[in-house]
Design goal:
- About 70% of the residues lie in helices and about 15% in strands.
- It is an alpha+beta fold and about 270 residues long.
- The chain has a four-stranded antiparallel β-sheet with strand order 1-2-4-3.
- It starts with a strand and ends in a 5-residue tail after the last helix.
Length: about 270
């Protein structure tokens, strides 16, 4: 169900509203023919609703209606619940049990040029206000973030300075402790160094004596071995000479014996 309603605001702005309604019949089982009691139920319903809409719009200015048109029309058509002061959710025509459940405002158009200009001006003003509001909000947010960043930076700077001061204090304490330890431990260190040097000298002397003894032992063993080898060589040489003399004597004896034998053989045994 759709209708076009021409309304006029309190400041004489004439508007053409295109509205659409959702509707149904509440069927009464005891009197089912009641839904046919009104021949032109669509026309009658549109007229009744249009009358309510005109009355509601006439009590408001163009700007007020433009800002809350849907709420004003719903309140005018459905009425307000006295308990919640909110618009009801339906309108019932008792003559034929026709129920209107929803209103959809499809379009709002000015009827005359003056109203159109006013509407355009209102829209432009609303856009300008919205734009400026967004710009101001963005600027405020940027300033807020900048201040927060500065605050965090300042806090960080203070914390860094505090940490640096703690570190400097710790360094001074460590330097003082080091100086104390150095002063108190210098004598101990010198005594330990001297004792260590004396121990090293003693160990070196003992080691040197051991090495000298070992060198003397090695030298004696080497001289003994050399003497043994020399004597063994002399003995081997003399033995070789003796063997050579024996061999020579044997050879001479053999030669003499052979010579004698040859002489005997030459002369003859009987001659001798």
């Amino acid at each position: 169900m759709t209708d076009v309603v021409v309304v006029e605001t309190s400041d004489h702005a004439r508007l053409s509203l295109k509205v659409s309604y959702n509707w149904h019949f509440n069927l009464d089982k005891e009197d089912p023919q009641k839904i046919f009691q009104v021949p032109d139920f669509v026309g009658d319903a549109c007229k009744a609703i249009a009358s309510r809409v005109r009355g509601a719009v006439a009590g408001h200015s163009f700007d007020a209606f433009h800002k809350a048109s849907a709420e004003l029309i719903r309140s005018a058509v459905f009425g307000l619940d006295p308990k919640t002061n909110e618009p009801r959710n339906q309108l019932t025509f008792s003559s034929n049990n026709l129920v209107i459940t929803n209103i959809d405002i499809q379009s709002v158009e000015p009827v005359d040029q003056r109203t159109r200009d006013a509407l355009q001006k209102s829209v432009q003003l609303a856009i300008e206000i919205t734009t400026k509001s967004q710009e101001a909000e963005a600027r405020h947010e940027a300033e807020r973030r900048e201040q927060e960043a500065k605050g965090r930076l300042e806090r960080q700077k203070i914390n860094d300075e505090a940490e640096a001061e703690k570190a400097r204090k710790s360094l001074l304490e460590l330097q003082a402790q080091s100086a104390t330890v150095e002063a108190s431990g210098q004598a101990t260190a010198e005594a330990r160094a001297k004792a260590a040097a004396a121990a090293i000298e003693g160990e070196a002397a003992v080691k040197q004596a051991q090495l000298q003894a070992e060198a003397s032992l090695i030298k004696g063993e080497a001289e003994l071995e050399e003497t043994k080898q020399k004597q063994s060589a002399e003995i081997d040489h003399q033995k070789a000479l003796n063997d050579l003399e024996v061999t020579k004597a044997k050879e001479l004896s053999r030669i003499e014996a052979k010579k004698f034998k040859d002489v005997v053989n030459a002369i003859g045994a009987n001659t001798i």
